Amino acid sequence: MDPEKAHELTISLFSRFPGILSKMIGGELDSSKYNIFVGDLNWSFPVGLAAGLDKNAQAIDFFSHTLFGAVEVGTVTPKPQPGNPKPRMFRYIDEESLRNRMGFNNLGADVVFKNIKNSSRGDKVLGINLGKNKVTTEVDAYKDYVSLYKKFAPVGDYLVINVSSPNTPGLRDLQSTDKLKIIFESLIDERKKTPIPLYLKISPDQSFEDVGPIIELAQDFNLAGIIATNTTIMESRGAGGISGRLCSEKSKAMRRFVLGRVAGNKHFQVIGVGGISEFSDLWEFWKLGGKAVQIYTSFIFQGPGILEDIKNEIDKALIRNQVSTLNELLENIDQAE
Ligand SMILES: Cc1cc2nc3c(=O)[nH]c(=O)nc-3n(C[C@H](O)[C@H](O)[C@H](O)COP(=O)(O)O)c2cc1C
Predict the structure, then answer these.
(1) CA-to-CA distance for 117 and 112, rounded, in angstroms?
(2) By alpha-carbon position, which residue is closest to atom 3 of ligand 1?
(3) Cα(230) to centroid(ligand 1), Å
């Protein structure tokens, strides 16, 4: 089946039958064995759902009942927009990777807001990923982020400024420190009125030289952390962003860099995403000082079984290291084996 059709069908099933399907897939956790604090937020499991799979917040009820420790919806833009012409999602089955040039197709802030209001996620952490409309000029981009912050801060647990998608023309230009500064400054008042953890999602394609000052800026503005990374561009494969195993090396390198830079700041989180497809990726991230990750592409290829597999591997690690909770394991991760 065409990948986008398969995706739409799955989301529609998840949104119509959340109870039955999540029971069939299983995965509700009955203990605090796997929970970790990411900043102030209590993730029930160290793996969350990355943005872009539930763009319109239609399947929060379903995802909240899976093992995912947090669910990030969006990217949502202020106005609805159709995205780029189809086909715009491609599979590389042997390489467990995807290429997409969706272009922030979504139903817009009003509908996504209603969907969130009508959902019941229990105490599962909900992130909302925010992007600017394609028609919004670079100069006015900050206005989109301010209006989205205002609308979604009261209904989410954390928000994400997304300036790292390769599929909205000019969006990645907003990743320069002077342009990001304008966005962060314009958010100061709203953040005071409705404080909620705010993350910045970055691309794996920037040079470390450029990312260093962005990390400093994010800390200066008291962001909760950085989500590293979005998809990568591989010109040889065609237009769009590559995710899954093919983006793993670049994402990992960026995560390592960011974690190294913020190692001394206990109040600043790095959420790892990009090419995470098995427990060893998570382990490597923990060893570098990270805690929580997100997945998208490996969930598409492996299904919810990937979460079960990771849970089983965590169980083994707990036994091996003679501790009973993930928190204890992460406290002494340097010595863990
Ligand atoms: C089809 C598709 C659509 C995506 N849409 C978004 C999006 O709207 N916003 C966003 O921040 N990231 C989006 N992403 C990027 C993912 O959230 C993630 O950062 C990236 O795919 C790398 O993780 P992965 O290798 O686990 O897929 C999308 C990814 C895919 C494959």
Answers:
(1) 9
(2) 52
(3) 6
Structural domain of residue 111, as residue ranges?
A: 3-331
Domain count, the chain: 1
Residues with CB under 6 A from ligand 1: 50-52, 55, 74-75, 89, 98, 100, 102, 104, 129, 162, 165, 201, 230-231, 243-244, 247, 273-276, 295-298
If you measure from the C-alpha of residue 22 to the centroid of ligand 1, how many angstroms do you get, rounded to a whole number?
A: 22
147 is catalytic: no
Would 337 be classed as within a structural domain?
A: no
Indicate the pTM of the whole model.
Answer: 0.96
What's the distance, CA 258 to chain centroid?
Answer: 16
Contacts of 139 (CB under 8 A, 6+ apart): none
Ligand 1 centre from 222 Cα, in Å? Answer: 25
Task: Single out the residue of 82, 118, 114, 86 nearest to residue 101, CA to CA.
Answer: 86
In a domain, 273, yes or no: yes
pLDDT by residue (tens digit) across 283-313?
A: 999 999 999 999 999 999 998 899 999 999 9
Q: How many CB atoms within 10 Å of residue 23?
A: 12
Confidence of residue 204 (pLDDT cuts 50, 70, 90): very high
Whether 302 is in a domain gets the answer: yes
Inside any domain, residue 14: yes
Q: What CATH number does the domain containing 64 carry?
A: 3.20.20.70
Could you give phi then psi for residue 80, rounded to 5 degrees?
Answer: -65, 150
Amino acid of residue 201: K
